Amino acid sequence: MPPARGPARGLRGRHPGTLTARGVDPGLDAQLGGHSPELRTALSELRRIKDDWEVDQLRGAVDATVQGFADVAAALGAAVRGGGERWLQGTFDRRARALGNGPGYASIVAAGANSPVLHWTRCDGPVAEDAIVLLDAGVEAHTLYTADITRTFPVSGAFTDAERRVYDLVHAAHLAALAEVRPGKQFRAFHETAMAVLAEGLHDWGLLPVSVDKALSAEGQHHRRYIVCGTGHHLGLDVHDCTSARPSAYHRADLEPGMVLTVEPGLYFHPDDLTVPPELRGVGVRIEDDLLVTASGAENLSAALPSDADAISAWFVS
Ligand code: GLY
Ligand code: MN
Ligand code: MN
């Protein structure tokens, strides 16, 4: 795709930065009608493979997002002193507006008991000095390609034992899933691998009422009580890109060079969930990276952000 030029006057939508002829003239809207499902599907499937220019846009979005995460790290003191989640959200979003078009989606800053809430976009809670923070945010480039990255870290620099246990299990699932991202693997393979690692860990902790095999079977899925979302999606002009692709072209398709996708396993223990021991209640952890499928494997575009427990704690609090 050639570099984007600014939209022609009159072709901006109601929302600044959107390239659309809709929302300008109601008469024109009526004539345009909706996109046919067939066109939506065709466009979604065409968007699955990014060309070099698109990959560069995504690299830029990821790099700007890493800068936004660094800004959040520098703002933790102000958040604890009274700014709360709002301050951290504003901090990231300001960077997104300065380096790109803005946040690619409503930024998620979830501290303490908000961390297991999917997705906590209210961002209106306090940030306690002993809290963990789940930060899920992405800068959208001026060309509208967006990053989508999550890190979870302790504000104090040290996880509690229970938080660390959850973190390490999610991290193990993350590493196992990343290893499944390469050409020729089915898209859903990395999700299934993450589910297997998480179900095994939950079983070891005594949280599954059935065997791991039973939980992983189609009629089981007991582990999903604590895993309320998928493990990844295509990424591009939309944060959830290519959503109108047919299943045969998405989850059941093989990965191909040029695809960009997220890998984002997590565990979410709600504060009022009496099926887990008290020390796990209110702990939510997600680790999300942005991957480019290459000819021989995958490149982690967001590798500048470490993901193991000690390294990410030190990255945010040092
Ligand atoms: N930020 C939304 C998602 O991770 O899918
Ligand atoms: Mn995502
Ligand atoms: Mn995300």
TrEMBL record:
<comment type="similarity">
    <text>Belongs to the peptidase M24B family.</text>
</comment>
<keyword id="KW-0378">Hydrolase</keyword>
<feature type="compositionally biased region" description="Low complexity">
    <location>
        <begin position="1"/>
        <end position="10"/>
    </location>
</feature>
<feature type="domain" description="Peptidase M24">
    <location>
        <begin position="57"/>
        <end position="295"/>
    </location>
</feature>
<dbReference type="InterPro" id="IPR052433">
    <property type="entry name" value="X-Pro_dipept-like"/>
</dbReference>
<keyword id="KW-0479">Metal-binding</keyword>
<protein>
    <recommendedName>
        <fullName>Xaa-Pro aminopeptidase</fullName>
        <ecNumber>3.4.11.9</ecNumber>
    </recommendedName>
</protein>
<dbReference type="Pfam" id="PF00557">
    <property type="entry name" value="Peptidase_M24"/>
</dbReference>
<dbReference type="InterPro" id="IPR000994">
    <property type="entry name" value="Pept_M24"/>
</dbReference>
<dbReference type="InterPro" id="IPR036005">
    <property type="entry name" value="Creatinase/aminopeptidase-like"/>
</dbReference>
<feature type="region of interest" description="Disordered">
    <location>
        <begin position="1"/>
        <end position="35"/>
    </location>
</feature>
<keyword id="KW-0464">Manganese</keyword>
